[in-house]
Every structure is written in structure tokens, then in C-alpha cells.
Amino acid sequence: MANVTSLKEQVVERFKRLFDDEPTIVVRAPGRVNLIGEHTDYNDGFVLPMAIDRGVWVALQPREDGKVFVYSADFEDGGEFSLNKLEKGTADSWLEYIKGVAAALHDEGKSLTGWEGVVTGNVPIGSGLSSSAALQIAITQAFAAASDFTWEGTPMAKLVQRVENQWMGVQTGIMDQMISANGSAGNALLIDCRSLETTAVPLPERTAVVVLDTMVRRGLVDSKYNERREQCEAAAAVMGVEMLRDVDLYTFLQKQHLLEPLARQRARHVISENERTLLAAIAMQREDSVGLGALMNASHASLRDDFAVSCDELDIFVEIAQRQAGCFGARMTGAGFGGCAVALISAENITQFTTTVTAEYQAATGKKPNVYVCFPTNGAERVM
Ligand code: ADP
Ligand code: MG
């Protein structure tokens, strides 16, 4: 995890150069990868993500004049706003995430202190590892440290979800914010998206989690995502429940004739995925990598066939991964239609695996993928 240490050094160095002073506070918040439990969060269901050793870092120093000056080292762009005048700008720039967090904290009744700071990160942006949640959770930490209020993971996750949904106008569930805030080293987190209860479950010994970025970015993701959400709500209504979370597999099998064929498929994915996610947590507690991998494979098939959110490149990458030596299982992760897949592999196969899948994916698609070996880390923390 060498890059973690160096990012802290980098952000501190950058602060010193820009502001000609030492930062008094450094915070970080991680990106995430979801092991299983896809398109379940907005159905009040279960998800099983882990925080990864890639994150967003902020080095800062409080100011007395109620202003926030912030420089993004990744965009090479600076911005400022006053805490007395928190209004949404016209451009959806990175600064809006920061202003949105300030506005939400202000609405919560927090008394905020301004600061000047530098932001940098190594969560690939827009790949589906949730750099946006990492940024916003890091910013809640920055304000908590500068303004001296107590930071708590789950309330901050809820607040940041409101920022994404309302300030930025991006419809997301609560998973990304919850794991970035509450992750724990060595573990994935089983999250009940209704109660927001979390249970840490250890990644099996001698396994590695590898993220496979197809490099495909589809413009239609938002409309398809909203369409799936509506289909799920409609299916729940037909089944007479508030959310698909309220239907177990047994009840679904009894009542599925009530649903149109398409709605039946959509509901079957969500309901079976909830079961798989709970079973995956049990498999992890038993150190059963084979069982966990089989559930991941089944999750992919369900997302591809019943929920119809995969794409050719994801299917190709998953299939390549699944037939490698030492691969327990693989599936698409995130909203779909492109983005990343995730594979669970035996630790001794890391080098061989990454080399082979990179070459095979490139040969099959003509696209050069990014492949990241990820380690489960803690959620957001103040590191200085
Ligand atoms: P992702 O899947 O990575 O969350 P999003 O489109 O939701 O993709 O969020 C990406 C946006 O988050 C960026 O365009 C930028 O505005 C903001 N962001 C993420 N990481 C950083 C960073 N290191 N510095 C500044 N802004 C960032
Ligand atoms: Mg995002």
C-alpha cells in the first residue's frame, strides 16, 4: 500500500507550496468496490462492499473569515466560496461537491469554520469506484476537523447521499457513502440499506480482490438506472409490499405469476441477489472462498440475464476472469452498462492473473483495460 503513504506526502507537499505554510489537518476517505449485492441498495436490500486502498486526501488549515479556498491537484484548478452564501453554481464542477457538503452540514445546524486546502486522490474518476463519495466523505471530515464537531460515519453518509441526490442531482443509493465512511481494514461490510446496520466480514485469508475496468463508459447509464428503479418500485407495488426487500425468495416463487414477464425478471434479480448477498457474508465468515466465488458468478448471470444491466465488454471480461487458474468467481460491479468487474482470486495467482486477463481482454475487444488489485481498508479518517 505504498501509494497511500505517498499520497499523504503529496497532498502535504502541495499545500506547503501553495499556501507557504504547514497544513494542520489531513484527512482521507476511500473509494470502494462492491463484492456482491448489486442494484439492491435502492430496494432497501443488502450490499457487501469493501473500502479500497485508493482514496481522496485533503490537507487543510482553518481560516477565520468564513471562506473556503480549495485547490484540486488533480484538475489543477482552484475555487472558493463563502460559508455565508452557499448557493448552487451553474456548472457541475468538482467544487460543487464541496459546496454541497458545506450547505448540507449548514442545514444540519453545524456551525462551520472556513479553511484553505488541497484535494488530491487516486480513485480513478468515473470508473465506478466512487471517487465522488470518497471526495464528499473526505470533505465532511475536513469540515468536522476544522469546525471541531464530532464526526460519525452513518449520519455523514446519509448527509452526503442527500448532496449527491439533491445538490448534484445524481440518483444514487446509500452504499458508496456508507462504505467510504464506515469501512474497516481487512473486512468487507455487510450493509442493511434499510436499517443501515453494518456487519464487518473478513475477506478470506490468502485471497485478493481484483477490479477489472472495461474502459467502457456509456452515456445512457443514468436513464437506464432510473428505469430499473421504477421497474423495481412497480414490481413491489404489484406484490403488495413497500420495497422488493420485503419479499423473500419463497414468497416470490408463490406470487411471481402476478408480474408481467419483464417485471418478474427484474424482481427475481433483486430478490435472489439479496439472498446471495446474505449467503456471501456467511461464506466469508466461514472463510469459504469457493462458496463466495460461486455466489459472485451467479450474481453476474442474474445481472446479465434478469436485470439486463451488463454489456458485451463486461460479459467478456467476466468470462475471461472466471476461467483463470485461481479465480474463485467474478462479476460486474456497480451500476453496469460498462465500468468495472470484480474478481476474487487466490493470492498466489495475482501476477499471473492480472497479466493474462489484461492480454486476453485486449485481444478480445481491442481495448486496453485497467486492472487494480485492491486491499480492504478503513473508512474515512483524520490522519493528521
Ligand atoms: P465516480 O464513479 O468516480 O464516483 P462520478 O462522476 O460520480 O464518478 O464522480 C466524479 C466526480 O467527482 C469528478 O468529476 C469530480 O467532480 C469529483 N471528484 C472525484 N475525485 C476527485 C478528486 N480527486 N479531486 C476533485 N474532484 C474529484
Ligand atoms: Mg459517483
Write up what this structure looks like.
The chain has 11 helices and 12 strands. The protein is α+β, with helices and mostly antiparallel strands and 384 residues long. The chain folds into 2 domains: 4-199 and 378-382, Ribosomal Protein S5, domain 2; 203-374, Alpha-Beta Plaits, CATH 3.30.70.890. Strands 1, 2, 3, 4, 5, 6, 7 and 12 form an 8-stranded mixed beta sheet that branches. It has a 4-stranded antiparallel beta sheet with strand order 9-10-8-11. Helix 3 crosses helix 4, helix 3 packs across helix 5 and helix 6 (221-238) crosses helix 8. The chain is globular. Bound molecules: adenosine-5'-diphosphate and magnesium ion. Magnesium ion is lined by residues 130, 132.
The counted number of beta strands is 12
Give the N-terminus to C-terminus distance in angstroms. Answer: 18 Å
How much of the sequence lies in strands comes to 15-25%
Give me the CATH fold name of the largest domain.
Ribosomal Protein S5, domain 2
pLDDT average, as an integer? 96
Largest sheet: 8 strands, mixed
Q: What is the helical fraction, as a range of percent?
A: 40-55%
- Uncertain stretches: none
Identify the CATH architecture of the largest domain: 2-Layer Sandwich
SS class: alpha+beta
| CATH class categorisation of the largest domain | Alpha Beta
List of distinct ligands in this structure? adenosine-5'-diphosphate, magnesium ion
Please tell me how large the radius of gyration is.
Answer: 21 Å
Number of domains: 2
